[in-house]
Design brief:
heterotrimer; A alpha/beta (about 400); B alpha+beta (about 100); C alpha/beta (about 200); B: about 100 residues; alpha+beta; Alpha-Beta Plaits; 4 strands; C: alpha/beta; Pyruvate-ferredoxin Oxidoreductase, domain 3; 7-stranded mixed beta sheet; 6 helices; 7 strands; about 35% helix; globular
Chain lengths: ~400, ~100, ~200
């Protein structure tokens, strides 16, 4: 293990170098540009064996990745925001074809208005595409989870995207523990493909009408169902080997808490500082950091969250359903099947990179204390740091 | 529909594992006209074979035309139109 | 959790404010500290006002919000005083380090510097004399090391040497080291109390 100073983008590129994928097809976009730019320099300097395919759009990038995956290759790409949006139709194709591709995604808002900064509307907009979606809090997690992602993808033959917060993490340099190349190769193992165009003639992507389409979609739902235990297995192998503590979600000081905050991404760290400050005041609050948004770990979350008085969700995007942000909508939907119904409130924050600090989160937690006391929710959906 | 495989039995990713399986799909069942071949007029020039969009002109080992494969012929009539000997006539399909 | 030191760098595009923040963070890391180094994310144009930031601590840093109340502000270009919000949020006991030959009293009385802890150093002059170019960022690393006092000059120099060696010739590295040392020696707290 080495201690290195890396930004989120450098950490992801370093993980890609150590994975040494067979094919990378990518198109640059802020703030993910550096991931492929740095990786392209690895290719140019002969540090990897990768076939690097420069393409003319993200649509082509992911399409090329699918072709490579169909040939049995280990494949990674990287994108952000509009790039992920342009990949949108191809995302579904990759998942339907069970192509184990990994996207290093850097979260950025989606136009319009045009903005280059972080929110989660790009990846949250891809929730229905059939990809496993993992969120990282910082550069260390971006590095670790990229390595785990390739393992997860190839274990269940599903595409996986790993997300970091644009600029906040992608361009912030920090201390990162980097494994030896050999250790990374050992943990990811040899890529075995579910099928390959090179073995014997097969047909990939045929027309599938009323007679079989439904069955194939049901298969896809099933593999999402079965993916959680696989994700947990990969995480625990990784933890055991590298002394880490990854799980589908991570709890913080929830044991005696009355109110629990649920969120994902870089704000988790800032929120833990807010939790500590509230605890100093004697207020019992805790936190759940979600790593896995797809599949949504509903059974596990119900079990974890059912007995708290209040769940405060922080969403860095909105569903435009007028029912709040995606984590809130899905968590509420999950909790409906539970006999105990904790009160759940939602706060939309940080759209277009709007900063969120410790004091703002403390204010939200104090509002929560008031809700618990009054046993009444005035407005279930609020906004943090928004000018009225 | 009930005789077809359920979702648990299908190969993943919609792949078709056997090559050449398109042959099993008989595409000639919505024909409204059928080509009728007169062997006596035919010189086996094979212009029909070249033009047929469905590869439905049957040819024997001696490279002579032996008939039309009605499993795949969609009745487009190109063969009849192109035949220099008028050896193929289109007739209304009776079912 | 240990104290987190927060630093804000003000410069102009091309002066190396971001590089200074990265180098300073990496040097702190080499002494076992945890750090963050990040630029202000805006249009990147030569000459436009830019900011960069550092967080430094003995324990892992989990804050991912912006830095609003820095402990130290470093100004690479004194022409930014008066036009940029240099003093914004600086802690009451916080320090400011300015690359200038101006009298600190002028900074205090005329250019809106309100903290008592004003440090000046002619980083551009040092750089011009030693490196032959106006690159104030590396000398300012020396000044900041002295003012902040969380690592020694030797810690800084040994790490900077290693990092610069990857990109530059021995001669350039040596000149940078000299200019860092000189700024370390020359930076002085200036009394501005007699207004």
């Amino acid at each position: 293990m080495k201690i290195r100073a890396l930004t989120g983008n450098e950490a992801m590129a370093e993980a890609m170098r150590q994975i040494n994928p067979d094919v990378v097809a990518a198109y640059p976009i802020t703030p993910a540009t550096e991931v492929v730019q740095i990786f392209a320099s690895f290719v140019a300097n002969g540090l990897v064996d990768t076939e690097f395919i420069p393409v003319e759009s993200e649509h082509s990038a992911l399409s090329a990745c699918i072709g490579a995956a169909a040939a049995g290759a280990r494949v990674i790409t990287s994108t952000s925001s509009q790039g992920l949006a342009l990949m949108h139709e191809v995302l579904f194709i990759a998942a339907g074809l069970r192509a184990p591709i990994v996207i290093c995604e850097v979260n950025r808002s989606i136009s319009s208005p045009i903005n280059i900064h972080c929110d989660h509307s790009d990846t949250m907009g891809s929730r229905e595409a059939g990809w496993v979606q993992i969120y990282a809090e910082d550069a260390q997690e971006a590095y670790d989870l990229t390595i785990q992602a390739i393992k997860i993808a190839e274990e269940i033959f599903l595409p996986v995207m790993v997300s970091t917060d644009g600029f906040i993490i992608s361009h912030c340099m920090q201390r990162v523990e980097v494994m030896e190349d050999k250790e990374v190769q050992e943990i990811i193992g040899v890529h075995r493909s579910p099928y390959s165009l090179f073995d014997k003639p097969i047909t990939i992507g045929p027309l599938d009408l009323q007679d079989y389409f439904f069955e194939h979609k049901r298969q896809q739902i099933e593999v999402m169902n079965q993916s959680l235990p696989v994700i947990e297995k990969v995480m625990s192998e990784f933890n055991a080997r590298f002394n880490r503590t990854y799980s589908i979600f991570k709890t913080y000081k929830i044991e005696d808490a009355e109110q629990v905050v649920v969120l994902c991404g870089s704000t988790c760290g800032t929120a833990r500082v807010a939790i500590d400050k509230m605890r100093e005041k004697g207020i019992k609050v805790g936190l759940v950091k979600l790593h896995i948004i797809r599949p949504f770990p509903h059974k596990e979350l119900i079990e974890l969250l059912k007995s708290f008085k209040l769940i405060t969700v922080l969403d860095r995007s909105d569903t435009m359903s007028t029912m709040g942000g995606p984590i809130y909508v899905e968590l509420r939907s999950a909790m409906y099947g539970c006999s105990q119904h904790p009160t759940i409130v939602d706060y939309i924050y940080g759209l277009g990179g709007r900063d969120i600090d410790v004091e703002q989160i403390m204010e939200v937690l104090l509002n929560g204390e008031e809700i618990i006391k009054q046993k009444k929710v005035a407005t279930p959906i609020g906004y943090i740091g928004l000018r009225e | 529909m009930k005789d077809k495989k359920g979702w648990r039995e299908l190969p993943i990713g919609t792949i078709i594992t056997e090559p050449g399986s398109a042959r099993e799909f008989k595409t000639g069942d919505w024909r409204s006209q059928r080509p009728v071949w007169d062997a006596n007029k035919c010189s086996s020039c094979l212009i029909c074979f070249i033009y047929c969009p469905d590869n439905s002109i049957k040819i024997g080992d001696d490279s002579k035309m032996t008939g039309v494969d009605l499993d795949y012929c969609k009745g487009c009539g190109i063969c009849a139109n192109e035949c220099p000997k008028k050896a193929i006539q289109m007739e209304i399909e009776k079912r | 959790m240990s104290k987190i030191f927060e630093i804000r760098w003000h410069g102009r595009g091309g002066q190396g404010a971001k590089t200074a923040a990265l180098l300073f963070g990496e040097s702190a890391m080499s002494t076992g500290k945890y750090f963050q180094a990040f630029p202000e994310y805006g249009p990147e144009r030569m000459g436009a006002p830019v900011q960069a930031f550092n967080r430094l601590s003995d324990s892992p840093i989990i804050l991912h919000c912006g830095i609003k109340e820095p402990d130290v502000v470093v100004v690479l270009d004194p022409t930014l005083l008066g036009s940029q919000p240099i003093m914004s949020g600086l802690k009451a006991e916080g320090a400011i380090i300015v690359n200038t030959t101006m009298d600190p009293k002028v900074l205090y009385n005329e250019l809106g510097v309100t903290t008592q802890k004003v440090f000046t150093v002619d980083a551009s002059g040092i750089s011009r004399a030693i490196l032959g170019r106006d690159l104030p960022n590396t000398p300012l690393l020396g000044a900041l090391t002295k003012v902040l006092g969380i690592m020694t000059l030797d810690d800084l120099l040994s790490d900077i040497k290693k990092r610069l060696h990857k990109k530059f010739s021995d001669e350039v590295v040596e000149k940078n080291i000299q200019s860092i040392k000189k700024a370390y020696e020359e930076v002085q707290p200036q009394s501005v109390r007699s207004k």
